[in-house]
Amino acid sequence: MFDFPPKTAVMICGHGSRDDEAVSEFDQLAVHLRARLPDLDVESGFLEFARPVIRSGLEKLRERGAERILCLPGMLFAAGHVKNDLPSEVNEFAATHPHLDVRFGRELAVDPRLLAAADARIRSVLDDRVPIADTLLMVVGRGTNDPDANSNISKVARMLWEGMGFGWCEVSYSGVAAPLVDAGLAHAARLGYRRIVVFPYFLFTGRLVKRIYAWTDEAAAAHPQIAFVKAPYLNDHPLVIETFLDRLVEMETGANLMNCQLCKYRERIIGRESEVGMPQAGHHHHVRGIGTDHDHPHHDHGHHHGHAHPHAHDHDG
């Protein structure tokens, strides 16, 4: 492993969820990284809902003597959270403690190791009863109001489709972007394939993944002639952990570059022209650290870019 300078610490920045199981799985990521980074102080925190919040983790690292803090986004793609909300949190902390060297890493992005992990998750639910050529793969993304992030799901889907030999592939989203999973599955069921494999391209479980699986069960009940199969999400596959470690090394080697070619805050993207150059700001103050469903079972909410996004994304996690 890379030889990090003394007094370097790692802050793993998660999205957060109202789902206790999702929080537990994210916490397990910190366990894996601590085991792989025994000489570094590692903390984790959340942008919204769950505790501890990111600022609390950063303060703990500072209090324990960290002089350099590598802030690692625990997210797949660079949408509003990675481009705006997390940098806002990190910049606010860094401005308060100018003597610290605080660095912000890039998202996991489309990476060969993640594609290999996805391949393994999908193959774990395949059998020989239906040929793969008679199988449709449905890759499901989180869905955001950032078209660049949404398009990455299509790229992942295409690479899995061609690489694994599925007869067809479709893309859908759990929220915000179209088509949603229920509509996507209704369309896929009309294409004549004997089996449909639904693969949530997510790191961890949560309300969204459980919603995806529920929609799959509904589609299976509506189309009993088709075998619907629910593939597991990425979670803590060893290749996912390796990708996180590589993002840490990038912060030290100067290769920590986010792809901004199609960023709606820097370039004029069709339908998003008014968002070029919007100021960077966080949008999660109202749900920061309020707790999971276990804490509030009655409560329900239906790289520095220098820009922000309108607050219009699905808070369910």
Approximate helicity band: 25-40%
Largest sheet: 4 strands, parallel
Q: What is the terminal separation in angstroms?
A: 32 Å
Low-confidence parts lasting 5 or more residues at pLDDT below 50?
A: 297-313
Mean pLDDT: 86
The total strand number stands at 8
| Tally of domains | 2
Description:
The protein has 317 residues and is of the alpha/beta class. It folds into 2 domains: 8-108 and 237-275, Rossmann fold; 112-230, Rossmann fold, CATH 3.40.50.1400. 36% of the residues lie in helices and 15% in strands. The chain has 8 helices and 8 strands. It has helices at 20-36, 54-63, 80-96, 112-123, 147-164, 181-189, 207-222, 238-253; strands at 8-14, 41-46, 68-73, 101-104, 135-141, 168-173, 195-200, 227-230. The strands form 2 sheets. Strands 2-1-3-4 form a 4-stranded parallel β-sheet, with helices on both faces. A 4-stranded parallel β-sheet has the order 6-5-7-8, with helices on both faces. The longest helix has 18 residues, at 147-164. The two termini are 32 Å apart. The model is unreliable at 297-313 (pLDDT under 50).
How would you summarize this macromolecular structure in one to three sentences?
This protein has helices at residues 20-36, 54-63, 80-96, 112-123, 147-164, 181-189, 207-222, 238-253, and strands spanning 8-14, 41-46, 68-73, 101-104, 135-141, 168-173, 195-200, 227-230. It has two domains: 8-108 and 237-275, 3-Layer(aba) Sandwich (Rossmann fold), CATH 3.40.50.1400; 112-230, Rossmann fold, CATH 3.40.50. The chain contains eight helices and eight strands.
